[in-house]
Amino acid sequence: MRYKWKSGQWAFVLHRVSGVALSFYLIMHIYVVSSLYDPQNFDTVMAFLNQPLFKILEIGLLAAVVFHGLNGIRVMMIDFANATRVHAQIFWVVLAVSAVLIAVGAVPFLMHAGVLGH
Amino acid sequence: MERGIGSGGAFAWFFQRISGAVLVLALLLHFWVLHYSNQGEVTFEIVAQRLATPVWKTIDLTFLVLAVIHGFWGFLMIVRDYVHSKNMRLFLVAAVWTVGLVIAVMGALTIIGFHPPLPVAPPEQLGGMVQ
Amino acid sequence: MQYTLRVYRYDPESGQPGRLVDYTVELEKGATVLDALGEIKAHQDGSLVYRRSCRSGICGSCAMKINGFNRLACETQVESLGRKPIHVEPLPGFKPIKDLVVDLEPFWNNLHRTLPWLINPNPPPTDKERPQSPEEFAWLEMPMTCILCASCTSSCPSFWADRTYLGPAALNKAFRYEFDTRDQGFGQRRDTLDNRHGLWRCHTIMNCNDCCPKHIRITEEISWLKRKVVEEKY
Amino acid sequence: MIVHNHEVVIIGAGMAGLRAALEVSKVGDVAVLTKVYPTRSHSGAAQGGMAAALGNLDGDNWEFHMFDTVKGSDYLGDQDAIEFMCRNAPELMYEVEHMGTPFSRTPEGKIAQRRFGGHTLNFGEKPALRACYSADYTGHVVLHCLYDQCVKNSVRFYSEFQVTYLIVKDGICRGIAAWDIRNGGLHVFNTKAVLFATGGYGRVYRITSNALANTGDGLGLALRAGLPLEDMEFVQFHPTGLYRSGILMTEGARGEGAYLLNKDGERFMKRYAPTLMELAPRDLTSRSIQTEINEGRGVQSPEQQAKGEPGDAVYLDLRHLGREKLKAVLPQIFDIAENFMGIDPAKDPVPIQPTSHYSMGGIPVTIQGRVIRDAQSTEVPGLYAAGECACVSIHGANRLGCNSTLDATFHGRHVGRTIARDLPSLSYHDLPPEAMREAQAEMNWYFDRSSGTENVADIRGELQNTMQKNVAIFREEKALTAQLDIIQNLQRRFKNIHINDRNQRFNTEVMEAYELGNLLNFVETIVVGALEREECRGAHWRTDHPGRNDVEWLKHTLAYREDGKIRLDYKPVVITRFQPKERKY
After folding, report:
1. Does the beta carbon of A60 lie under 8 angstroms from any beta carbon of chain B?
2. Contact: chain C with chain D (3+ CB pairs below 8 Å)
3. Angstrom distance (rounded) from CA D475 to CA A104
4. Contacts of D138 in chain C (CB under 8 A)
5. Interchain proximity B1–C199, CB inside 8 Å
6. Residue among A2, A3, A6 whose CB faces C206 most closely
7. 3 state SS of C31
8. Which residues of chain A are within 8 Å of residue C65 when distances are taken between CB atoms?
9. Which residues pair with D166 in a beta bridge?
10. For residues D248 and D394, is the Cβ–Cβ distance under 8 A?
């Protein structure tokens, strides 16, 4: 039987995974943006990126950003505010708030992608 | 105790937290500006206008540098966690630094070098490309 | 009441890998996992090996992984573990020696690296104690209860990835002395703490904190140490 | 067989062993052997405190402490030794604090002190605040602090080594043989000095506060080497062991104000010790509890209630102290009640019963800690003992609470100094080959028991049950005689034990059998001593011989094993300041 996964372990792994994903996105993002010297090119690419598929992917990006950011705040509370006693409770709050933010944030994306109509 | 590469870590730890906090705020701004303030429209025009002001240039540069360092220090953390062969670690640390620097320079050049054509190109010229 | 224990058996001399073996034992109400192991050893298989001594939760010998979670066998009531077979395995993260016994040498070595003793170059007053207020003593009440059972260090994913990482138990010990008003050893301990195998391998995963049988908030202590290092350094 | 040379070998890594190691490590090459790991030693289970007349909170002084100890010992303690210890206890206490042990503090920042059984001011006037404490983790923090100091001094530890043989020839101790539990194999240690700090033997009884490892190994070895054991009939029963398991509930609980209640909710101690009430010495309190139980006023468990059987417990009532205070000053007690009984002591009283706790007797030593072989105090060169396994005798017929942590640390240090002083005049001696052969043959015997038929656990269980029944708090001739037969029968059965595991590494089946063999070897000294001593003194209470008999029995027992039988001899008690009086509390 492997070691039991408790909230802290989930938080850690999700934080790492989302962090790595965000870093790769950052590389891609900067690469894409930096290749856009002229307006023509820029808008071509933007149009390409405005396809529904990328909007859906952006929801994933949003999820990663939201969780990584909120859990980052949780980590800071543990590191600087002695919140160890309630670390598990904070994790559940982080999850709940993340879910809400992701849901709310996803609406414009989906609207834009035409999934929810314009 | 071990000295040289791998000793210390206090600064990295502290910086990750401070940069993280700043990034949370910066991201809020970034998201708002990018996806909500213009109903999600991202056009050359809008971006170009924004980037023309020195304030935005500074904000974006700071954002870029912090994000790159935060992200790449994250990678270094993972390397330190799991790579224990000295040579492999040196190689990976060097690789992470190299990629990080390249990306940072690339991004910085984009931000600094993003000269919007003045006066701003008329919308018709871009016309059909925009949704 | 009858219980089934699924116990990890491993004999290095047999050349076979470890395996889980089921034992069914009849136990009285209130019996602990250690009682159950004792019953197996006494009447079913004397060759079963595990460490134990005080059976009252103070010596720290019988830490093991029970149903996937590190705890003291002597403090864990069998009844609290449900009716499914109870998995009893050695502490993870250490080299197994035999059955439930693991090699704790890395654990002790890491502990000793933190210079776990009072460092104070000033001679103490003769014929009286070094003064310390009740509030100052309160800082020591949590870390001093550590029984060095190794549950925490063994539960730490950072330790699994790096056996020379000090680990929570050693860091608890460092806290115990660093935050003792009678101690002035920071200068000597700093390089060990502020190190690739020191404080910075802690990623607040909380496993140590969750499994500590003495309810020591180790992660909080580690955070205090991290902040102390940062403060003293910059 | 691997041979090691160390100038000094210390067996046992509790308070006494570690404190001695610290002292010897300053001058010589010392190795500490322990069958567990040093921090696992049972000294760590001491909860309530360590006695020293610091007078931090009242006008205490060492003479009161000495008087209480003498009176507590029922005048069987040697007063020169008691004076030596009590006089120096404050200085020792400060040293322990200077080493870094954390202590609870008074508002002025001094070491906090609490009440403990039998400790009084002005020769019995009222309870004294004498036990220096660290919440209820006192033994634990002192043990760990001493371990830390040993690590600092680079003391060499051999952890998980079971000592199996003491090599004494021509009256000189030459070394020991020990089994390497982890890797298997016998190691011989050639030494200039051996120090026994092997602790007690609570595991002789079924209900005990002692660890599973407390099997009195050192006593068995000494007896086998032809040395006597002193005052073995005096076994302390701690009044408050957790019901059935016997796990210690510190006397500090009563020091903080806890009550003892019988099933009618009566504070029955007022009938036995009107002045000190719950803070009477342990022998008296344990007898009082047992009397309540025997006379039908014991608290029943739910099963006993269902079956209509009489109860065999009384209540330790902590409720009136309040949750906050309990969590602050008795956190461990709180956890133990919760983890082992499922009781919240702030809400419900905790069922307790007397539990075998401490052996006043042991290997006879001089005040300097040198082992002696007869009533004339003939010393055994190169052999020392300290702590619970030794009998100085500080505790006489009954030990006062929080005097054992003091005794172990104090005599650990003192015997360490003695060894350091003796070392220049001590030398290595040849190891007799026949002793080494015998040591190896003994271990071979254990590994060759696959054809035996007797179960080790069953023999051990029967020994513990019968000792609990026949040689516990109240004793009488018939039961003691019966117990001798039982032991001899068990010794016979032991010769035919079965051991399944033939593996050399980590063979705890052999180790447990070895421990039982040792127990069976010396347990007779307890019974024979109790049978011969026809009086009531301290923890030894003969219902068929009421009253203390100073004319005939104010003397120490020495028990030898000769030709398979126990022979007793006696040694006078040293009386200096306090003449024996009737003992009242």
Report:
1. no
2. yes
3. 80
4. none
5. no
6. A6
7. coil
8. 1, 3
9. D176
10. no
Q: What is the 3-state secondary structure (H, E, C) of D145-175?
A: HHHHHHHHCCCEEEECEEEEEEEEECCEEEE
Tell me the ipTM for this assembly: 0.92
Subunits with at least 3 CB pairs below 8 A relative to chain C?
Answer: A, B, D
Residue of chain D nearest C112, judged by CA positions: D151
Token pair of C145 as six digits: 């209860």
Token representation of residue A100:
């809400």
Question: Is residue A2 one of the residues assigned to a domain?
Answer: no
Asked if B40 and A112 come within 8 Å (Cβ–Cβ), the reply is yes
Hey, which CATH number is domain D242-353, 3.40.50.300, 2.40.10.10, 3.90.700.10, 3.40.50.2300? 3.90.700.10
What is the pLDDT averaged over residues D109-138? 95
Of C47, C56, C140, the CB nearest to D45: C56
Residues in B closer than 8 angstroms to C110, CB to CB, are none
C174-214 per-position pLDDT tens digit: 999 999 999 999 999 999 999 889 999 999 999 999 999 99
> Phi/psi of residue D5, each to 5°?
-115, 120
Report the C-alpha gap between C210 and A89 in whole angstroms.
13
How far, in Å, CA of A32 to CA of B107, rounded?
A: 10
Chain C residues near residue D108 by CB distance under 8 angstroms: 131
Q: From edge to edge, which strands make up the β-sheet containing D555-562? A: D229-230, D555-562, D565-572
Search chain C and give the residue with CA nearest B15: C230
Q: Which of the residues C110, C165, C200 would you substitute to probe the B interface, choosing the one with the greatest number of B C-beta atoms within 10 Å?
A: C200
Residue A118 lies in a domain: no
| Inter-chain CB proximity B1 and C191 less than 8 Å | yes
CA angle D248, D249, D253 (to 5 degrees): 150
d(Cα B35, Cα B38) in Å, to the nearest integer? 7
Q: Which CATH architecture has domain D433-562?
A: Up-down Bundle (1.20)
> Looking at domain B9-116, which of 1.20.58.100, 3.30.450.20, 1.20.58.2140, 1.20.1300.10 is its CATH number?
1.20.1300.10
Are the Cβ atoms of C194 and B12 closer than 8 angstroms? Answer: no
D561 has catalytic annotation: no
Residue C97 and residue D506: Cβ atoms within 8 Å? yes
Could you tell me which of D271, D472, D230 has the C-alpha nearest to residue D361? D230
Nearest CA in chain B to A72: B20
Model confidence at A42: pLDDT above 80: no
Instruction: Report CA torsion sign: D131, D134, D136, D142.
Output: negative
Domains and CATH numbers, chain C: 2-102 (3.10.20.30), 105-233 (1.10.1060.10)
pLDDT tens digits, D426-471:
999 999 999 999 999 999 999 999 999 999 999 999 999 999 999 9
Q: Tell me the pLDDT tens digit for each residue of D240-265.
A: 999 999 999 999 999 999 999 999 99
